[in-house]
């Protein structure tokens, strides 16, 4: 069932969104060559604590228990662990953060270029954020879930990028994952109608190569099948009478 939230509930969700946004800002600011992923995780945890937010697990990996962020470097599609790995010049760092404040959840994601980044990687990152922006612009009452999926997918495919099956988004609120599902690409005019009070996570993930992914030797981390790089972006937003209200800015 798709839950519709009241204005007061959206304000409460906004508190969680502000905590997540603050954590991502801090990580972006401090992400540079030589910094360990674990240091960024500790920073994110401290910022969340300042906002009375509790980090929630994003990574189905035994080494990621208790992590505040998922940290995905270069060809990591999913389940990136904020471990002792040091960032190096030219890396792409994908950061994903999910947290709860007073029973309400919010999530957001971004990609950061470390030092001197290859122009092709910059274009990949910019395209991921453009896909997100276009989907947010389409998030208006009277439209449908398929319109959001189409907005995400058409930007990615027009850039020649792959789209992993698990990307796109879903509902979010009391639980980290709720109905409806938002595929990473789709046909406009299909799916559930967008109604005021719906809260969604939109999260495009773009692969510089094809759609193929594989599992690393650890049995958990998901990588691009061809070693190509990955960019992601994401916001939690609410559908209102006047369009999208982004909760994680």
Quick synopsis:
The chain has helices spanning 7-30, 37-50, 119-138, 145-158, and strands at 54-55, 70-73, 76-78, 92-101, 104-113, 168-171, 178-183, 199-203, 205-207, 213-215, 222-224, 230-232, 235-240, 243-246.
User: Hey, roughly how much beta strand do the residues contain?
Assistant: 25-35%
Largest sheet features? 5 strands, antiparallel
How many extended strands? 14
Radius of gyration: 17 Å
- The overall average pLDDT, rounded, is 95
Poorly predicted segments: none
End-to-end gap: 27 Å
Structural class: alpha+beta
Shape field:
globular
The number of helical runs is 4
- Assign a percent range to the helix content: 25-40%
Strand order of the largest sheet: 7-6-8-13-14
Helix-strand pattern, N to C?
A: HHEEEEEHHEEEEEEEEE
Question: Multimeric state of these chains?
Answer: single chain
Features:
single chain, 249 residues, alpha+beta, 5-stranded antiparallel β-sheet, 4-stranded antiparallel β-sheet, 4 helices
Question: Can you put this structure into words, describing what you see?
Answer:
- The chain is an alpha+beta fold and 249 residues long.
- The protein contains 4 helices and 14 strands.
- It has helices at 7-30, 37-50, 119-138, 145-158; strands at residues 54-55, 70-73, 76-78, 92-101, 104-113, 168-171, 178-183, 199-203, 205-207, 213-215, 222-224, 230-232, 235-240, 243-246.
- The strands form 4 sheets. The protein has a 5-stranded antiparallel beta sheet. Strands 1, 2, 4 and 5 form a 4-stranded antiparallel beta sheet that branches. It has a 3-stranded antiparallel beta sheet with strand order 3-11-10, with no helix packed on it.
- β6 and β7 form a beta hairpin.
- It is globular.
- It starts with 6 loop residues before the first helix and ends with a strand.
- 51% of the residues are buried.
